[in-house]
Amino acid sequence: MGMGRRERDRQDVLFVTAEQLPKSQGHAFYKRLNRLLSEAGFDREVEKLCEPYYQPTGTRGRPSVPPGVYFRMLMVGYFEGIGSQRGIAWRCADSLSLREFLGVPLTEATPDHSTLSRVRDRLPLEVHQEVFRLVLQLAAQQGLLKGKTVAVDSTTLEADAAMKSPPSADAARHRRGLEGVRHWLDEEGRSDRKRRRAERRRGPPLR
């Protein structure tokens, strides 16, 4: 068998049909989780939770990222132990499997980190906790988590959120329940505020 060589000056293709786009079989965990979320009516439930924090349907302007896509991206960060929204955005943009999980085709861009930050700032912590409580409860009931017990009350869900057969060997090993969500959101908010303050101090770029 001859050795293949990487083409250094390959000409860009001007037109690609949908059939020519690369396909992914998807990661078994995310496929199972997506099926579980679909059967539970996850997207409609999340949209109802988030609706009070958006303008009425039909308002002029571009629609927001669907809440179901936003929270799926947070799930990726939660389950894979990614500690920043930049990291989550890069991971989702780079992975065919995660694009399938999000429901974003290759012809569209996945949400970037600034979009995630805007949605995070719009939705209160209580909505984030309620959504993750729902997801972890569903996953535990279907045996997707290693935790032996899941105790649900008005404020917390206690569960070992490490995945069975995770995409990475140490995925989310140290994360537990909703306290991890609270800490993660707080850290992200502080990082964004520091970055914005630094940009204001630097002033506009020179032209």
From TrEMBL:
- Which stretches does UniProt call biased (Basic and acidic residues)? 177-191
Identify the residues that the record assigns to the Transposase InsH N-terminal domain, covering every copy.
25-122
Q: What domain of life?
A: Bacteria
UniProt feature, compositional bias: Basic residues = 192-207
**Looking at the record, which segments are called Disordered?**
161-207
The UniProt entry, under Pfam families, shows:
DUF772
- UniProt protein name: Transposase InsH N-terminal domain-containing protein
Q: Which species is the source of this protein?
A: Pirellulimonas nuda
What are the top taxonomic ranks of the organism?
A: Bacteria, Pseudomonadati, Planctomycetota, Planctomycetia, Pirellulales
